[in-house]
Amino acid sequence: MQRSSIIRPTVIATFIVAISLLHYFTPLHLPYLHAIFQRLYYLPIILAALWFGFRGGLICSIIVSIAYAPHILFQWGGCLTMEMEKYLEILLYNIVGGMTGLLSQRERERTVELQKTARGLEESYQQLQQQSERIIAIEEQLRRAEKLSTLGEMAAVLAHEIRNPLGSIRGTAEILKDDYKPGDPKHEFIEIQIRETERLNRVVEDFLRMARPQPSEMGRCSLVEELETVVTLVARDALDRGVTLRLEPFAGAAIVRANGEKLRQAFLNIVINALQATPSGGKVDIALRMAESAYEISVSDNGTGIDADSQAKIFEPFFTTKPNGTGLGLAITRKIVEGHGGTLAVESEVGKGTTVLVKLPLNDSAN
Ligand SMILES: Nc1ncnc2c1ncn2[C@@H]1O[C@H](COP(=O)(O)OP(=O)(O)O)[C@@H](O)[C@H]1O
Ligand SMILES: [Mg+2]
User: Fold this and answer.
1) Pocket of ligand 1 contains residue 110 by CB under 6 Å
2) Which terminal Cβ of the chain has fewer Cβ within 10 Å, N or C?
């Protein structure tokens, strides 16, 4: 750009100077040479018009006229017809310069206009594409919400059907327990039975809570404490599996405004998945980090990994690759994390392992 802005005027000026010199130094008794030089002037004029538009063409033709006029006046002055013909040529220079300039300028303006239109079209196309991507994303969310709400209805029916018999089982077990003294093995069995019915009841309640949107009780919650609780809960399981479970130390308590119970549930689901995917001798690392606007909790395992096909589906309710999995863990986890304004992401490589990353926004009201 910079170079062509010097080169073009130089080319035109060189032409004009060279042709003028030819005029002034060619003897007048060679009129056919002068006739050729006279036409050569069109070269710089047309170039100037093409390169610089109307004004460029006209300025060039005027310069040519000024350079050429003394030659006519002083050298051809003697012959009137010759002189007249050459003044006519000067007129033509200016007409050609102006006209060519005008035409080329219009052409150029049209090109610019076309380019602008093309750019405009490109932008609208991109906007359209972004909008359609957003629509697809929203549709996906709706689909998920729908699935979960069907799930909610199912859960309500199921919970009702399960809870009533559970109540009877528990009640009769309480009565039977009184027949045996503590220390009696049957007393122990019945206690186990009561404990297990309670656990079942909790499971049903959890299921119900997950599936039904519910105003959650938010409060001050320490992420460090929740993670420590999760580690305590699964430590035995990790030991049985021969998997090393580690929670990296974190300075501070990492306080957020959250529903601690739900967050714990979410972390538990992730950690249990990691343990289940990791063979004996492997490891699961839990780390907490404070980033600019969020706490980042990562759970990394060096287990089986997740193939690309499954990765697209792991958050869907009921998607599972385990013989007795429910496929609800990650769906619930995502619901909880998003309910706290956070995000959930999974990175995985088959055969190498998986990292699940939870981001929870730092909120001022926590302190
Ligand atoms: N850390 C992990 N490593 C490998 N696969 C995983 C991991 N976490 C989740 N998955 C995959 O995602 C699926 C869905 O997980 P989840 O929703 O918790 O249901 P479930 O554990 O009952 O199968 C699992 O069946 C498993 O295939
Ligand atoms: Mg699971």
Assistant:
1) no
2) N
Among 330, 333, 355, 356, residue to substitute to test ligand 1 (most atoms within 8 Å of Cβ): 330
Ligand 1 pocket check for 274: Cβ under 6 Å: yes
Residue 215 has pLDDT above 80, yes or no: no
Domain boundaries, the chain: 2-123, 138-209, 219-366
pLDDT digits (tens, 9 = 90+) for 331-351: 889 989 998 999 999 999 999
| Distance in angstroms (rounded) separating the CA atoms of residues 256 and 262 | 13
In angstroms, the CA 338 to CA 149 distance is 16
CA 173 to ligand 2 centroid distance, Å: 31
Please give the distance, rounded to the nearest whole angstrom, from the Cα atom of residue 333 to the centre of ligand 2: 9
Q: What is the pLDDT of residues 225-274, one digit of tens each?
A: 999 999 988 998 999 999 999 999 999 989 999 998 889 989 999 999 99
Q: Any idea which residue has 């938010």 for tokens?
A: 218
In this structure, which CATH number among 3.20.20.70, 3.30.70.100, 1.10.760.10, 3.30.565.10 belongs to the domain 219-366?
Answer: 3.30.565.10
Spatial strand order in the sheet of 294-301 = 244-247, 283-290, 294-301, 353-361, 343-349
Architecture of domain 138-209: Orthogonal Bundle (1.10)
SS3 285: strand
Rounded CA separation 354/277 (Å) = 9
Nearest CA to ligand 1 atom 19: 327
